[in-house]
Amino acid sequence: MTATPVSGIGIDGAAVSETAPHGTGAPSAWVARWAHLVRPGARALDLACGYGRHTRWLAGLGAQVSAIDRDADALATLAALPGVTALQADLEGAAWPLPDEAVFDVVIVTNYLYRPLLARIAACVAPGGVLLYETFAQGNERFGKPSNPLFLLAPGELLDVARAANLRVAAYEDVTLAAPRAACVQRLCATRATPGENPGTAALYEAAA
Predict the structure, then answer these.
(1) I want to staple 129 with a disulfide (CB 3.0 to 4.6 A). Which of 28, 96, 105, 163 is the partner?
(2) Does the bond joining 180 to the residue before it have cis omega, within 30 degrees of 0?
(3) Tens-binned pLDDT, residue by residue, of the chain (209 aa)
(4) Phi, psi of 15 (to 5 degrees)
């Protein structure tokens, strides 16, 4: 199994079960929305990557990607991709697998929640970097799995993570979706100010029309 303990179908219809493995399919629409923030050569972290739909997407944008998961079979499908370093690690049962000083220009987490790592994940965002997070929220138990509160974000929880890490929130959603499946979801795009920037000043990160 991958690092995600949840079975079923992901927020955007991507599979997160053993019969249809986590991390397959197209990238999340929320993640793809912020493609303009991923510069060629960017250092990227795809955490709990599964079969690497976002790893492949990032590599296609020219990023240098560290892809972490506990599923060796899933990671093996990424081994030959240029610019990708696959790292097998048990995120919940072992020590953090990266050096304490490791930071990234892009950090992506989808369909995964392990609260003891939230502060660590946010700390991985480099100055000028971006955190893209999307997973299930409280209320999703009405629609099916995940229904365990351990895997459901509380109201405003991602905002609290960003504020505690001194990240600037560019976009946030806490919504109930009707399609492709009914689900309660939180989504975050947050950035870390570069030296000289006012970390409290809002900025427009959407792509130009």
Answers:
(1) 105
(2) yes
(3) 344 444 445 666 554 443 446 666 899 999 999 999 999 999 999 999 999 999 999 999 999 999 999 999 999 999 899 999 999 999 999 999 999 999 999 999 999 999 999 999 999 999 999 999 999 999 898 999 999 999 999 999 999 999 999 999 999 999 999 888 899 999 999 999 998 887 665 556 676 55
(4) -75, 145
Number of H helices, E strands in the chain: 5, 7
CA distances from 143 to 103, 155, 158, 185 (A): 36, 17, 21, 12
- Dihedral (C-alpha) 146, 174, 38, 168: value to the nearest 10 degrees? -130
User: If you write DSSP's letter for every residue of 57-114 in order, what string do you get?
Assistant: HHHHTT-EEEEEES-HHHHHTTTTSTTEEEEE--TTTS--SS-TT--EEEEEEES---
Structure tokens of 163?
Answer: 């504020």
Does this model's pTM top 0.70? My answer is: yes
Residue in the structure block whose two tokens are 């009405």 = 142
Write the DSSP symbol of residue 201.
Answer: S
Give 129's DSSP letter.
E
List the structure tokens of 90.
């048990």
